[in-house]
User: Fold this.
Amino acid sequence: MALLIKRRKKKNIFWNLFLWVLFAGIIFLAFVAVLAVAIKLPDIANFEENRVVQSTKIYDRTGTVLLYDIHGEEKRTVIPFEEIPRNIKNATIALEDNSFYSHYGFRPLSFARAVFTNILRGGFEQGGSTITQQVVKNTLLTKEKTIIRKFKEIIIALKLERKYSKDEILNLYLNQIPYGSGAYGIEAAAETFFNKHAKDLGMLEAIYLASLPNAPSYFSPYGKHVKELDSRAIFTLGRMRDLGYITKEEYDSVIKEKIKFAPARTQGIIAPHFVIEVRDELNKKFGEDVVEKEGFKVTTTLDVPLQQKTEEIVQKHAEEIEKGFNATNEAVVALDPKSGDILAMVGSRDYFNKDREGNFNITTALRQPGSALKPFIYAAAFKKSLTPETTLFDLPTEFNPSCNSDGLAPQEADQDKCYHPQNYDEKFRGPVSLRESLAQSLNVPSVKTLYLAGLNESLATARDFGITSLNDPDRYGLTLVLGGGEVSLLELTTAYGAFANDAVYNSYRYILKIENSSGKMLYQSESSPSEIIDKNIARAINDILSDNNARIPAFGEASALFFPGRKVAAKTGTTNDYRDAWVLGYTPDIVIGAWAGNNNNTPMEKKVAGFIVAPWWHEIMEYALTNRQMSGEFIPYEPFTQDNPYMRGEWRGGVEYILDKISGKLAIENTPKDFQEKKVIREIHSILYWINRQSPQFKNWEVPIRKWAEANGYYDEDKNIIPTEYDDIHSADNAPKINSIEIIPSKTSYGRTEKILVKPSIESKFYIQEVDYFLNGEFIDSVKKPPFEILINLNIQGDELEFELKIKIYDSIGNSGEKQIILNIN
Assistant:
């Protein structure tokens, strides 16, 4: 009985589903029928006249300098169907509509699948369009993505199929589809990308062209997604094989061939790498078809004079950099830290040099930053209570606890897993402050700083600064601080902008506003500043990176990082294998990041970034400082307060006591600050001795430091060196006294502008060094010679009827005393 009920329930479910599908089908057919009657079929001969294409124009930040006119030079040459190569036809059908010759202009299943996908994703990402539908869409209809427009497209496609042959429709499609770079139709595409007629295209060339129309800007062979284009071409070739358009032998032969495109045309574009990025953003916002045909006016962030000067400087130094350092490419990003505006972007030495992959944008590529990542590690360390004065030992140190302190692996262990980095000059300096370590880019203290800050905490700090690519901590380990991860020049320059902008981060941006062809505002950028770290930490980093005295031992007094009369913060970075050289520098108004290296990752000459990049980076910064409005200087940081001597920079010991300088005894509450001297019991240890002796790093840090201390005559002291007696000089009994104050003339009240002579009577065991006079709390003058008298012009303002006269005296050992009297005003 239960089984019978279940069967009836299943039958009812299927029956209800069938009724719903039938009802939906009837509604759909009725709707289609109404539209079919209402829509008039246009003449195919007039298809190209049905759309008025307006080019989108990209401008600089002033809105007056045209950087690029998207399809400002539209190229189209219509050719007969017979002149279009068979491989182009087959490749296009294989990619776009493999049932083209069997359907009637519309594929219901593909349409249903697209509808289902769009419902799941909450948009109109997929259309399920046939080639016939695409012809209709590109020639007759607007680019709006609505259900009504989709139904119109289907009806016209069905009518078109009844009137014209498949070959005629395919011919129209291949003669009007956009292939990118202003080329419309296969003939213009063949001429643009291969400098030949379509009929002369080889199979591989045909396959690459067929791969473009899906996203012409994204897959452009002159853009930054060439690898993605290669992958799509391989996919196209595979589809042709799977569908029987080519044989396996043809597939195996063609896949071994190497494509060669014609050189890109250089006319009519300013800042090409920047423009490509802008165009990518536009395509993401609106879609390629809309951008190509709707006539937008795009105002970008680009500063054209700075851009052109940057390109000029890069070109000027290119030959000497290549000859002297074996670096074949350079890249630069300049931005405004207060807004994130990209002011200049040079993605390679020469965008149009195809042999050097000039169209590849290095500024957005991931490269190892070397020491350029150090400021973020030090900022993380300052969050953990370290200070610019905290001192670490720059000595040969093994950082793998499984290896011996001398850097050798135990027997039967892997020596390659030991890690003991060198400094750039292969020298070690003993105790150095974090200020000196960061300013001089010392490696060993920096690795220790990373360990003390914490790897995860340091990565979190980098993420706070907008660096999104460091997501594999197990791979980096302690090498992170020396560039063990990969970042882009664009993100790193933007991250430095947060230091420049007093701890406030702004994401980089390319576009200020977008207007349509009628001047209506479609988009206006708004910055979203966020404070990402304590301001005093950011100010401390700025102070260190702009401290020329601190970096002199490494870079010299007048290095390319130094700007006389101007504080510019700067940091270099060079990878251990010399594949990447960086300089990032900034003021509160501009950040400029520069890189040199080789696209194929081959190493340069063994020189640091201070030689390879800094000279021409300096020229760009000098131009920016001179020619752009600069409003501010760095805000000084407040010194970090720390009770622990080893955090304040005392490396000789961690147990502190305070002496009175005069008596040599322990200071007391009355001992003046100027006469107090902080001392430690000498015990030379690593900082881990004082904060975490259980650390697995402790032994390997401690051994070389103890050896260094012994070699330099620093022997341990014990607690017996601390005096047992206390300061008996700075006591209340020994303080100087003012017994009386005589005023001449002596009166019961004084005029507001009257002059008086003040004669204090002083008693002191020690020589009086100074006497200070105050009227109503305001300092008047100091007298440093006996008898310490002073003539005062009262000059009393307001309507007060009395005033206070205070005298403060100081003896030669820092004791002090004071006395005040009240005088009446008439």
Notes: The radius of gyration is 39 Å.
